[in-house]
Amino acid sequence: DLIHLMATLVDSQGNILIDGIMDSVKPVTPEEEALYDDIEFDLEEFKDECTVKNISNKLPNEDKKSLLMNRWRYPSLSLHGIEGAFSGAGPKTVIPAKILGKFSLRLVPDQDPKQITKIVTEHLEKEFSKLNSPNLLTVEMIHGGKPWLSDPKHPNYEAAAKAIEKVYGQKPDYTREGGSIPITPAIEDATGMNVLLLPVGACDDMAHSQNEKYNVSNLVNAIKVLGLYLHELGKIQGPKPSECRCLPLTEEELMIPGAFMKGFRCKCMI
Q: Residue 101's beta-bridge partner residues?
């Protein structure tokens, strides 16, 4: 039953098979699509990194733009494992009393975690009912976060781009790499300010893995980028704090949980 249900989630090409999962995905604009044209990305090197070159030498998408858009701006569903079944070496005819299948969904704007949980649960319950199985199905969403996307044309990003260009000698690419940083939209919502994620690393750092590493050269360059970024921020022209016309929070508002963060929600400053 579990193997059958997991097979109904995604196909071998990475296409999500759940009805309604794409309904709330923000459509691609011509301006966004044009950003992929100038990104430096080598498909053959990517095959080497994914270790598929000596296996099938195939990718789900054989053109750069389609591959990157499926990796970055469209949702993806990954099957991670099965818990409870026998997984040791050698044969064993054990039938477990309980078994768990694990999978995750990377969400993109404007998908809502609660709505997606509802859609996925209904899909699994529908497929399970077709089996007429004596087993019992339970679907649990462990945790979820809202997707986040910022504006690369914001002065905050322009300052960072100038800093990177000065340190590395070339303009940065703007990526939409999926990540699990749910605090990002929370900070943006609480402060009303633009939030910037500024990674300084290498594509082979293998973050969070057993062989995670960080190049010393990138550590040095990260310090340079941070300093120049703050320097570029200081050049941005705009109203000074003394010219702020935003109404201060009242004593009653300051007593509300989270009011400290909301106190920085000044619309007169970048």
A: 82
- C-alpha to C-alpha distance for 249 and 12, rounded to whole angstroms: 54
Residue with tokens 């990003």: 157
Find how far residue 267's CA is from the centre of its chain. Answer: 28
d(CA 111, CA 25): 6
pLDDT at position 135: 95
SS3 253: helix
Q: How far is CA 221 from the centre of its chain?
A: 25
179 pLDDT band, cuts 50/70/90, is low
pLDDT, one tens digit per residue, over 54-88 is: 888 888 888 899 899 988 889 999 999 999 888 78
Q: Closest Cα to residue 186, out of 110, 111, 262?
A: 262
Residue 6 CB partners (closer than 8 Å, separation 6+)? 79, 101, 103
Note whether 138 and 98 are within 8 A (CB): no
Q: Would you say residue 31 has pLDDT above 90?
A: no
- As given in the structure block, the two tokens for residue 57 are 């030498």
CB atoms under 10 Å from CB of 70, counted, come to 17
Tell me the residue type at 260: F
Q: Give the phi and the psi of residue 73 in degrees, each rounded to 5.
A: -110, -5
Please report the DSSP string for 32-72 in residue order.
Answer: HHHTTTT----HHHHHHHTT-TTTT---S-SSHHHHHHHHH
Given a cut of 60, is residue 259 above it in pLDDT?
no
Q: Write the single-letter amino acid at 183.
A: I
* Residue with tokens 């044009």, as numbered in its chain: 34
